[in-house]
Amino acid sequence: MVVSSIKSFGRYCTFMTQVFRIPEKWREFFKQLVFEINKLGVDSIPLVIIISIFIGAVICIQMTINIVSPMIPSYSTGLATREILLLEFSCTMMSLILAGKVGSNISSEIGTMRVTEQIDAMEIMGLNAASYIVLPKIVGFVLFVPVLCILSMFMGLLGGALVAQFTDMISMENYVFGIQSFFNEWYIWYAIIKTLFFAFIITSVAAYYGFYVKGGSLEVGQASTRAVVSSSILILLADVVLTKLLLQ
Amino acid sequence: MIEAKNVSKWFDGQRILYDINATFDTGKTNLIIGQSGSGKTVFMKCLIGLLTPEEGEILYDGRRFRDLDTEQKRQLRTEIGMLFQGSALFDNETVLGNVMFPLKLFSPLSREEQLERAHFCIKRVGLENADDKYPSEISGGMQKRVAIARAIALNPKYLFCDEPNSGLDPRTSILIDELLSDITHEYGMTTIINTHDMNSVLGIGEHIVFINKGHCDWTGNDKTIFRSKSESLNDFVFASKLFQEVKNYLEREYEDKSRSL
């Protein structure tokens, strides 16, 4: 188990040294980059919006129900909702969700290319297939993920606002006052920095599992599952380390 | 010309290839034949450089593949075209996109010249009016043609084909064989075709290397293959019921003639 993990890590590092090479032609790289930003990033916007609104609403409801003490000011609901969204949901939870969507997409796409010999075809042409296929995915998603993170924050807060608007659990004034209270700008940067690391983990781990698939469609599916599980665990590990480093 | 000298290959301690020596001539369709699992695909992958043989060497027109540095290998690979068994077309590219792919990355030509070259290759394989179609929208035979067009786009010196007829009907197989033969002679390429299709052997087998259980058991051509004394080759050739019946018929004829004399 330990030996195989070390071997996998070594192979992952070797793979990354192949990926991070100067592209064959910059024009082709930028074309691929725009394509990947669109496919991995822009296409994830609807999912991020839907999940963030609902989770934002649920957090707001939970906070309202659980913070029932005359000692705690009523605007605490908005404040707690904001802190939860900014500190954990919009970066870590959203990354875990995107690991499922984006990670499985990347892994299955590259895995299929491997088993249908498309990667061999590229390598025979003299192309660095790892760099050509994977680099635009990593760069594209890392570049776009802050947009998703910020969008998630706004949509989560909007979800809470919808609860305030359409229920009598909390007034809109209290909610808005709450989300503006004791605001720490660093939390935004903290979330974005964490998301950048998570985006790298999601794309590179998924690409690694897809690139080294052996066999057929069954193995592609297995690689996709392994990619999502591994990147989720790595995201949680990185979350602990980054939280300690960035918030202490 | 491509030469293989004493090529041996092991996988997980199991020997797959045993000291294979073979020469593949320029301007000829060279065939590697053998049963499934005989090691011919492994041998071809060693020739291309996708696998590294543990022993022996591969020479491309005298250039020892093992001794080439990364840049020289990259340069050599631009001189190689490859037709894969499953065509290996890029799913997200159209027919034109697939043929343009190597040109965009490795050709010094302008965009217009690249398009002109791609259209020429597509026309050469007889695939007009399919530029905008995706691989999933065309038949297996058409996919092979696109793969051939892509393989010849950079005007390669060496063309490798891994079972180009697999999954095709006999008529389309013959068309693909003829196309490969024509292209080889037209451009003076060194073409190596990995196959177990006897139609191809008899149709375009200008030089044939027979691999059996990892050994090179016989070399010759389509004219000499039926006169071979190699037992393993005869087992392979006459495994087909049609060939077996022809062989039996000829033997009966020969015996009848012998008796009458």
Give the arrangement of secondary structure elements.
The complex is a heterodimer of chains A (248) and B (261).
Chain A: H1 2-19, H2 26-41, H3 45-66, H4 76-115, H5 118-124, H6 129-166, H7 172-180, H8 186-211, H9 217-247
Helix pairs in contact in A: 1-6, 2-6, 3-4, 3-6, 4-6, 4-7, 4-8, 4-9, 6-7, 6-8, 8-9
Chain B: E1 2-11, E2 14-24, E3 29-33, H1 40-48, E4 55-60, E5 63-64, H2 70-77, E6 80-83, H3 95-106, H4 111-124, H5 140-152, E7 158-162, H6 170-187, E8 190-195, H7 198-204, E9 207-212, E10 215-220, H8 231-237, H9 241-260
Parallel strand pairs in B: 3-8, 3-9, 6-7, 7-8
Antiparallel strand pairs in B: 1-2, 1-4, 4-5, 9-10
Helix pairs in contact in B: 3-4, 3-5, 4-5, 5-6, 6-7
In short:
Chain A is mainly α and 248 residues long. In chain A, 83% of the residues lie in helices and 0% in strands. Chain A has one domain (24-247).
